[in-house]
TrEMBL record:
SUPFAM superfamilies: PLP-dependent transferases. It comes from Rhodospira trueperi. Residues 497-506 have a biased composition (Basic and acidic residues). NCBIfam families: PRK04366.1 (NF003346). Its EC number is 1.4.4.2. This is glycine dehydrogenase (aminomethyl-transferring). The glycine cleavage system catalyzes the degradation of glycine. The P protein binds the alpha-amino group of glycine through its pyridoxal phosphate cofactor; CO(2) is released and the remaining methylamine moiety is then transferred to the lipoamide cofactor of the H protein. One of its GO terms (cellular component) is glycine cleavage complex. It catalyses: N(6)-[(R)-lipoyl]-L-lysyl-[glycine-cleavage complex H protein] + glycine + H(+) = N(6)-[(R)-S(8)-aminomethyldihydrolipoyl]-L-lysyl-[glycine-cleavage complex H protein] + CO2.
């Protein structure tokens, strides 16, 4: 299955050029630069100098440029088309925010500069903190966490510190509902807590009765994702929060899906003690390429004293100061990382917040939910939605509509690629069978949503017409077809070895 669909004489497909490894392209005896011969210097390496060739491939500048440009063109990206990955909020990031982050006054700063020379940067951090506190109604914010999961770690460490401070450090259990994001139990375990699962009900929400039953005096806190991984609002969230607090525990909310709530819900009103915000999802930092991101964590009055260092404060004289050491009655649990966090991401987020304005943010979350419900409504014609009723920012389907067709969720996704449509998130969340989770975000037009729905509905009809091979043989039009993922994971080839004759010549 790994060979390409229709063979060409060259192995290329149109102007999509087959790309060998850079080592396979050059010749060790070629070079792209012309350096003068080294002067005759005495050998001070004690006989350790290499005598054999180093085996780097020699290429000219245009060969190198073409290699990396062609590789970059093999990446699908939000700039290339609709990217419906559920749970990821792959939305367009306005270029204005990139421009702001690249201003030399921001981009050329060094974290060791004296504070008097970086007052503007501290003002950015302070303003961003004010926006995040304004949008959530919370007491304090730690900007430094570098990702969503890192923000979870920050919030859970604050909970630990608060428990220790009141002599309740023996509470070791964290409740994690089935509908929570996978990073939640991982974070709880990393902090040394025992994870106790809580089942969902048939509406895709936490089972309130089971939740109440799971609460006891061993529970340190709960980690809830809202909107949850089924794209649904946890309607009982206030009752959950009350029950958690009555049990003497803390309420952590995974706020990575804040894009669905901004400007509509004050997080503090829900009884939340800690929540991270993914700036790289909701607040306009490109992501999906491994970073950098930022996961600021907002804290309630109960947890604020334990916030990690550093933070920025406004001074009476109009200046700003970065607090790096304990002052007054602060009891920080520590630091999350070196320096102050991902500053470039802060600039993008503040630029986004200020250019959108409060009204624009409110509209964005409304449009995100509207777009997801548009997908849900149109695709429900043929696909099987997992739960009844409207969704929040993402629409969840399962594979019941494929029953008896011989086509799996994976096959369906591969056929989408052939049609020029990037697949949705598959097989997540785990609570439904063969999940297909689609998040359109507010930045897609009705035309792009319709083009996506037309393609998905056409494929669904094709699958139900009995043409399973069309799916099981997909993708036909990609540079590589299906890979042996198990073998790749079990026997990864991480190192290029020269072909045999060249080895012998070394
Ligand atoms: C993306 C996401 C996370 C993790 O964020 P990272 O920045 O990838 O660490 C956590 N929870 C939810 C619900 C998410 O969608």
């Amino acid at each position: 299955m790994t060979e390409r669909g229709t063979p060409t004489l060259t192995g290329n497909r149109g102007l999509q050029i087959e790309e060998p490894l850079i080592f396979e392209q050059g010749h060790p005896d070629k070079t792209g630069v012309d350096l003068p011969d080294p002067p005759d210097l005495p050998d001070r390496l004690g006989g350790l100098a290499r005598t054999g060739p180093i085996g780097l491939s020699g290429l000219s500048e245009p060969e190198v440029v073409r290699h990396y440009t062609r590789l970059s063109q093999k990446n699908y990206a939000i700039d290339a088309g609709f990217y419906p990955l559920g749970s990821c909020t792959m939305k367009h990031n306005p270029r204005l925010n990139e421009r702001m982050a690249r201003l030399p006054g921001f981009a050329d700063l060094h974290p060791f500069q004296p504070q008097s020379t970086v007052q503007g940067a501290l003002a950015v951090m302070h303003r961003l903190s004010e926006w995040l506190l304004g949008l959530t109604g919370m007491e304090a914010v730690a900007l430094s966490p570098a990702a969503g999961a890192h923000g979870e770690l920050c919030g859970m460490q604050a909970i630990r510190a608060a428990l220790d401070a009141r002599g309740a450090g023996d509470r070791r259990v964290v409740l994690v509902p089935d509908s929570a994001h996978g990073t939640n139990p991982a974070t709880a375990a990393l902090c040394g807590f025992k994870v106790r699962g809580v089942p969902g009900d048939d509406r895709g929400r936490v089972d309130l009765a089971a939740f109440r039953e799971a609460l006891d005096d061993q529970v340190a806190g709960v980690m809830l994702t809202n909107p949850n991984t089924c794209g649904l609002f946890e309607n009982d969230i206030m009752a959950l929060a009350t029950a958690v607090h009555e049990a003497g525990a803390y309420f952590y909310l995974d706020g990575a899906n804040f894009n669905a709530l901004v400007g509509r819900v004050k997080i503090a009103d829900l009884g939340v003690d800690a929540m991270h915000i993914n700036l790289h999802k909701t607040f306009s930092t490109p992501h999906g390429g491994g970073g950098p991101g930022a996961g600021p964590t907002v804290l309630s009055p109960a947890l604020a004293p334990f916030a990690p260092l550093p933070h920025v404060v406004a001074e009476a004289d109009g200046g700003y100061r970065l607090i790096e050491r304990v002052e007054g009655d602060m009891q920080p649990f520590g630091r999350m990382k070196g320096f102050h966090g991902q500053f470039g991401v802060f600039v993008r987020a503040l630029s986004y917040l200020m250019s959108m304005g409060a009204d624009g943010l409110r509209q964005a979350s409304g449009d995100a939910v509207l777009n997801a419900n548009y997908l849900l409504a149109r695709l429900s014609e043929t696909l099987t939605p997992s739960f009844e009723g409207p969704c929040m920012h993402e629409a969840l389907f399962d594979d019941r509509f494929l029953k008896g067709t011989g086509v799996s969720t994976l096959d369906f996704a591969k056929a989408m690629i052939d049609e020029g449509v990037h697949p949705m998130t598959m097989y997540f969340p785990l609570v439904v069978h063969g999940a297909m989770l689609m998040e359109p975000t507010e930045t897609e037009s009705r035309d792009s949503l319709d083009a996506f729905c037309d393609a998905v509905l056409a494929l669904a009809d094709k699958a139900r017409s009995g043409d399973a091979a069309f799916f099981t043989e997909a993708p036909r039009h990609t540079p590589r077809r299906r890979l042996d993922e198990t073998r790749a994971a079990r026997h990864p080839v991480l190192r290029w070895e020269p072909p045999e004759p060249a080895k012998a010549a070394e």
